[in-house]
User: What shape does this take?
Amino acid sequence: MKKKVTQIRSKIGWPKDQKATLEALGLRKIGASVIVEDTPSMNGMIVKVRHLVKVEDINE
Assistant: This one.
């Protein structure tokens, strides 16, 4: 299974580790989306920045 992660809020004003997590996910602008695998490491990254992103499940 995969997930679509979309950045919905700015990273300005948030801690450096959260900014780095967004970069590691491949999100650089508001409105940008990436498709990621549903793995424990990705889920942990998403949880860390859950207040900045929207997550949708993709059924393939």
Remarks:
- The longest strand covers residues 2-7.
- The beta strands are 2-7, 33-37, 53-58.
